[in-house]
Amino acid sequence: MASKSSPTAPGGPTPLSELRVVLLGKAGAGKSKVARLLLGGKDLKEACDRCVLHENKHAGRRIWVVDTPGWDRYSIHNTSENIKEEIIRSASLCPTGPHALILVLPVDKLTDAHSADELKSAQQHMELLSERVWKHTMVLFLCDGEVEETTVTKHIDNAKNLLEKCGNGHYVLQNMGSETQVHEFLKKIENLVDNNDYFPPQTYFDMIQSKTPQPEDTEVKGDKKHSEEHSQEKTELRHRRGSYPINRPNLNEEKGTSGNQTEGGEATKHQNQDDFYALLWNCLPPATVILFVIIGALIGSVAGAAYGPLGSGAGIVFGVVLSVLISILLIYALNLARWRTT
User: Fold this and answer.
1) Which residues are 143's β-sheet partners?
2) Tally of CB atoms within 10 A around 314
3) What's the CA gap between 47 and 27, in Å, rounded?
4) Long-range contacts: 219-225, Cβ < 8 Å, 24+?
5) What is the pLDDT of residues 290-308, one digit of tens each?
6) Residue 54's closest CA among 79, 30, 22, 26?
7) Model confidence over 20-68: pLDDT tens digits?
8) Domains and CATH numbers, the chain
9) Residue 333, class by beta-carbon neighbours within 10 Å (0-12 exposed, 13-18 middle, 19+ buried)?
10) Residue 189: enclosing H or E segment and its boundaries?
11) How far out from the chain centre does Cα 313 lie?
12) Rounded to whole angstroms, what are the CA distances from 54 to 14, 42, 106?
């Protein structure tokens, strides 16, 4: 295995003094093999249900590799929540964030190319790290032993949609013992870093989005670009808003919002009705009694007039008492009916 990087071509990019990589893939994809390869054959503990961060100095640089637990081959729904959380956490284990995320797809001469379900599962698991992940992702086709070129080509063709998402960034590793291939793989990762810098974990990315002031030495090239694009979008939005009249009428003051106007009108209407009925019910009992007393007194007076003044007075008293009793019964009946309807 190569012990140091080859000289850089004149005018070419300076080799990175350190490299941070996250390895992702289904269970049994061979991520631990790739981790040992990148770390110079160092004996490593394999990831089972938690991420494992490995560190070593190799090929003239400091290398950090995060080995993640494997996901379900066919569906994200079959992957445990613990493993999903570990996948999300993986990017935050590298100091300030990984330079590259390597999606390991095994190529076996004895099995067919990856099915549509396997590739869909890989895409969904990768996007647990957000949609931004593809810009920093490289697909590694890891060959198990001697694999024919046609088999490799078939695997690449089947993964066409997945490769398009990461800008066709991929590498075929056929001989893990070849120093030349290891060097080429590392250079491929460096090229990805030159184009995109590193992948900030979601918590750091959210902090950038909220415009929290950051030290100059922690700013990321990709984040600066995203911040400029975000600022440009906000400026464009302001221009669009500025195309409307500045002193336009306040619709909320004049006739309410479209949704609340109807609701407010209905509420006012019902409130007025309730107030009217309350007033009516409060005034009805005394008015009813007075009316019935007057009517009863008149009827009693007329009926008792045939017996003289004494009979007329007795008729008035009898009419008033009877009218009061009738009005009380009527009020009671009305209140009972009102109570049943409420």
Assistant:
1) 107
2) 16
3) 10
4) 220/97, 221/196, 221/197, 222/135, 222/196, 222/197, 222/198
5) 877 788 778 877 777 777 7
6) 22
7) 999 999 999 999 999 998 888 777 777 788 999 999 887 778 899 999 9
8) 18-214 (3.40.50.300), 274-341 (no CATH)
9) exposed
10) helix 179-196
11) 87
12) 24, 9, 22
Q: Do 91 and 55 form a contact (C-beta atoms < 8 A)? A: no
Q: Kindly list the distances between the CA atom of residue 192 and the CA atoms of 36, 134, 182, 186, 276, in Å, as whole numbers in the listed order.
A: 21, 11, 16, 10, 77
**Cα–Cα distance measured from residue 37 to residue 104, given in angstroms and rounded to the nearest whole number:** 13
Q: In one letter, which amino acid is 42?
A: K
Beta strands in the chain (DSSP E): 18-24, 52-58, 61-67, 100-108, 137-144, 170-173
Distance CA 64, CA 55 (A): 5
Model pTM score? 0.57
Measuring CA to CA, which residue among 145, 136, 251, 138 is closest to residue 199?
136
3-state secondary structure of 81: helix
Q: Are 34 and 23 in contact (CB under 8 A)?
A: yes
Q: Nearest Cα to 211, choosing from 192, 194, 234, 189?
A: 234
Give the number of other Cβ atoms within 10 Å of residue 141's Cβ: 20
Q: How far apart are CA 91 and CA 94, in angstroms?
A: 6
CB-CB neighbours of 335 under 10 Å: 13
Whether pLDDT at 157 is above 70: yes
